[in-house]
Amino acid sequence: MKKTLLTLTSAALLSSAAQAEQFWSDTSISVLEGSSYTNAFSGDDETYTTTTLEHASGHSWGGLFMFVDRHVGDITETYAEVSPKVSLLKLDGFVSGVNAAMTYESGSSQFANFDNYLYGVGLDLAIPGMNFASATFYRAYNDGDDDNQITLTYGASSGNFNIDGYVDYSFDNDSAEDQLMINPQITYNIGPMLGISNKVKLGVEYFYWQNKIGQTEDQSAVSLLLKAHL
Fold it and tell me: 24-55+83-229 adopts what CATH topology?
């Protein structure tokens, strides 16, 4: 079932991409340093340095967001997501668009490897004062038990100040607790101070994770963040 859905989705995306026009694109690399990442099994705090390569782009067929994280610390892990969306309907008003959405999640560490496939429907939201906002409902076909997920994304800026992030709520998993993740980044663009045109953001990331990886431990971690847009 998972492979069939992936094949059909990939075929649809390739067909759309063949006639695609790209409207905008942004790629960045960032480094995070934090020491309050909770071990989901022991409850102990762990220290990590995370390097992230991230890409977002808008196209005539929809949009693409993807990233790769490399976590180095008490545990070494690589985690990646690829999230294309295909535009189904453009609207005027609070709901400005309806999309078919997919997310592929892949993680690898010395303890476990996994691949999850999420499929759903998303709404683009026109919220005054926000650069972007969206709400997506997914059905998640996981390596473990399947579940549902609601994802909210948002971004806003004023001058060189910026805040963006997401909220994930995963539920209805037969073998794991419901999970809530709240992950904003608050940054200031220091590029003008450095005399360069590309954005260089300095700030903090907050990562709250209730019932981390489906266990009963909660995480509340603040990390220093440096992000350079390429």
Answer: Outer membrane phospholipase (ompla); Chain C (2.40.230)
